[in-house]
Amino acid sequence: MQEIFNQGDTAIMVGGTGLYVKSFCYGMDEVPAVLPGIRDKITANFQAKGLDWLQQQISLHDPVYFASGEIQNPQRLMRALEVKQSTGKSIIDFQTQKKVQRDFNIIQIGLELPREQLYQRINLRVDNMISAGLTKEVEMLQSLEHLNALQTVGYRELFDHFNGKLSLAEAIEAIKINTRHYAKRQMTWFKKDAAIRWCAPDVTKMMQLIRNAG
Predict the structure, then answer these.
(1) Residue 93 has what DSSP assignment?
(2) Cα 102-14-21 angle, rounded to 5 deg
């Protein structure tokens, strides 16, 4: 940010990952270190038993997180489980919501489409990704399936296809469904932040919001 501000007065951050945006705007909560070996054990169990096992463990050991957290996101679930096993407390207990004071002004704008239009665009985007070679890309990455970075929508479903669990058509449909679910969770997450100003993806309306906020 400092490098950007050395060149001008404005920086634009674009993204949809809620925790990254929240951390950038408000700072990060302090969470105790995880005890040695716990993360490796959880990761190994997840790789062997899948998302259902993770969800079951969180439901059993951390019902507070299960009720309010991202239960379709394996990385979030593994993080919550390792914190619980290391500290005996829910990761929610360490999320103090204490905001840091940034030395620059932040204007947050949320772009919102009618749900039917959003879902149509998601479906089209998935079809375009498949046409652009996503299936071949995932096939080439099969030996790296265990990596955290590949436990995401788009990769996970196609790994299931190559592992014989889904046909290609079923995998593509699963990507569309899971992406729509992810988009819905994103909207739910960001709607909780009263600082976000919402509008349609229209340049004129966005600029008016920025002028009014400034």
Answers:
(1) G
(2) 45
15-94 and 108-213: same fold? no
What residue spans define the domains of the chain?
A: 15-94, 108-213
How does pLDDT run across 87-131, given as a tens digit for each residue? 999 988 887 667 788 888 999 999 999 999 999 999 999 999 999
Q: What CATH number belongs to 15-94? A: 1.10.20.140
Q: Residues in the chain with pLDDT < 70?
A: 96-97, 214
pLDDT at 96: 65
Nearest to 157 by CA among 148, 143, 169, 149: 169
Compute the radius of gyration of the chain from its Cα atoms.
Answer: 20
DSSP-derived secondary structure for 110-164: EE---HHHHHHHHHHHHHHHHHTTHHHHHHHTGGGTTSGGGSSTTHHHHHHHHTT
Q: Which amino acid is at 25?
A: C
Say what the pTM is: 0.69
CA dist 132 and 128 (Å) reads: 6
Q: List C-alpha distances in Å: 44 to 41, 71, 72, 87.
A: 5, 18, 18, 20
Joined tokens for residue 58 = 């969180």
Q: CA-CA distances (angstroms) from residue 145 to 83, 142, 200?
A: 24, 5, 37
Which residues are 196's β-sheet partners? 108
Handedness of CA 55, 43, 29, 4 (dihedral sign): negative
Q: Which CATH architecture has domain 108-213?
A: Orthogonal Bundle (1.10)
